[in-house]
């Protein structure tokens, strides 16, 4: 076998590995596109199951010649739901996926040095991997490849994990003191990331903390946030990592670099096919009259709760565009429910879709508010689009995000996470879409300007992306 020499001028090769869920795939795919535009050779590695669900990869490859796709097994059967961040099976995923990821990297090594392989990928310069799981860091260390951890949520939420780790390690009797010492907005026990503060020895808690702490072993941290949004938290975050790059909002940063993304939006990494007919329906609605409703890609609710939401939306008197995923129900098959009580497409009061092109929906001038589960991607997209929000947090970082929205930035209201009756939901919608909406819009305009400044030339996220690219290019290429 002839050996191929490593070219010192070879294009840097970055392997990007997202977690399984939509909310983690989308921001990393935006980052992948941005890095590919900067002259880096990018391989985006998805699980086989998700890779098959990507819409029109050919369009992405056409628009981003430096962006390439590969896939590995996640060890789960094809019929596994995969639509939740269930930490009970993260360890199983890690155990099953780790050898496949390592073998993929080794195959790049073999193919590059094998002269008989036509146009193999360049040598791997570094890895960017979602910090939800730690096995990519293990693999990177075993192979001697630099790795960056990607954090899909806020610096504040990450610091909460570090605080919980301190409590577990040595300060269990000082939990109140440690929680109150965390920088930023005030939080109570009920707002911590799904932890039972009286049962911190639970294996699930231990696993979540252990996986998060592993991020500190990375060469750097890429944070899906904005310097100006979390000025009080970031100095504390930066003390835990060699380098920190804040690069949000990634979708807006990408849009600013590309201009018109309309030709590639169908290939934005969504695991569902968006119903774009809803955009025509929006065209027929009055200015800022529509409430957009989406619970994201993971949240599940009961049939009875879904019906209460339907009644509340109809009785509120405001037109609505509602995303109801096929897998949203906890206790029934969605197909039978839709046939009996719901109608996909336009209704007398609104429009129901399986999935929507959310960026375009929020940017439409008919949309006046957003009822959201408070996922960080959704929050960032609503801010960029200058749309006030009703927060309905359900788990994880959504409670921290809600605190930012309601208490710190004052660009929305909270719908109690435990609200179950339609009258409460209806009253919240009526008040919000009435006099509150315009008040919040003035506040969201100010926050949106901060986001816009961050992605403009000389802004914090613009600069940090440039620094990330420069640092990757300076890395000594992994010598195969």
UniProtKB/TrEMBL annotation:
Xref: PROSITE patterns: UDPGT
Keyword vocabulary terms for this entry: Glycosyltransferase, Transferase
EC number, UniProt record: 2.4.1.-
InterPro entries: UDP_glucos_trans, UDP_glycos_trans_CS
Gene Ontology MF term list: quercetin 3-O-glucosyltransferase activity; quercetin 7-O-glucosyltransferase activity
Enzyme class: transferase
Keyword Glycosyltransferase: yes
Identification of the protein by name: Glycosyltransferase
Organism whose genome encodes this protein: Ziziphus jujuba var. spinosa
